[in-house]
Each structure stands twice: as C-alpha cells, then as structure tokens.
Amino acid sequence: MGGAGILLLLLLLLLAGAGVGEAWRPPKGKCPLRCSCSKDSALCEGSPDLPESFSPSLLSLSLVRTGVTQLKAGSFLRVPSLHLLLFTSNSFSVIEDDAFAGLSHLQYLFIEDNEIGSISKNALRGLRSLTHLSLANNQLETLPRFLFRGLETLTHV
User: Per the UniProt record, which residue ranges are transmembrane (predicted)?
Assistant: First the structure.
C-alpha cells in the first residue's frame, strides 16, 4: 500500500474514531503543538521532535514531516494502547533496538517515504499483535536476518 493509500486509511480511521458530530478535544496539555487530536487519534505534522504529551489511551498516531532523526528505544512507552502508528515523509534514518517497546497492542505499523537506511534486528521486538507492516519507499537495501522473529501475528508486509 502506497503513501496515498495509507493516508486514506488513516483518514478513515480518524473519522471512525471521532464519530459524527463528536468534536472532542483531549484535556489541555494532552494534544501537543502541531498536532490535531480527536478522542482516539492524533495527527502531527511538522513537529521538530517526537511529541510526548498524548493521552495514554490514544489508539492511532500519525507523524508526518517531523524533525525526528532517529527512533530510539522506548520512544512510545507513554502511549501503550496504540493500535496504529504511521510515519510518512520524515527525515529519520535509523530505527534502534526496542524503538516500539511497550506497544503490545499495535496492529498496524506504516513507516513509509522516510530516509531509513538501517533498522536494528530487535527494532520490532515485543510487537506481539502486529498484523501489518510497511517499510515502503525508504533507503533500506537489506533487512536484518531475525527482524521478524517473534512476530507470529504478522500477515502483511
């Protein structure tokens, strides 16, 4: 699925999560600058860093054109309930070991149109619910040998 397809899927998920006529905004301080938040979803565009002050019950997070240069271990420990995580058109090039630690409910991980040249063999460790993964349109030439170890539920790559 290309970037346009992912953005369409994301839009549909955001609309489904928001509900008709349910304009809801998280409590003050729970939706970071340069982000738009609904009850269950957040879309952040142009943020210089990885935003941190989300509600811990957030289900969907999209990061577009951020200034993040690498995904470090434990980057998402504050949003353990995520089911969908999307990165598109960002400038990071490295994904470290345990970058997605704590995201045991994550089902959809789309890392597309970034500058990723290297991904650690343990970057996806702990994603026991992951069913869909896309690493399309990056700088990856090879993948680590055991990258998919422990991802028994992964059905779409």
Answer: none
Cα 116 off chain centre by: 14
Neighbours of 48 (CB within 10 A): 10
- Distance of alpha carbon 100 from alpha carbon 12, whole angstroms: 24
One-letter amino acid of 154:
L
The token pair at 84 is 């969908």
For residue 69, the tally of other CB atoms under 10 A from its CB is: 13
| CA–CA separation, 28 and 12 (whole Å) | 25
Length of the chain counted residue by residue: 157
Domain 35-134: give its CATH superfamily. Ribonuclease Inhibitor (3.80.10.10)
pTM score of the predicted model: 0.81
Give the span between the Cα atoms of 51 and 122, in whole angstroms: 23
Mean pLDDT of 136-149: 92
User: Distance between CA 93 and CA 107 in Å, rounded?
Assistant: 23
pLDDT digits (tens, 9 = 90+) for 119-128: 999 999 999 9
pLDDT at 144 over 60: yes
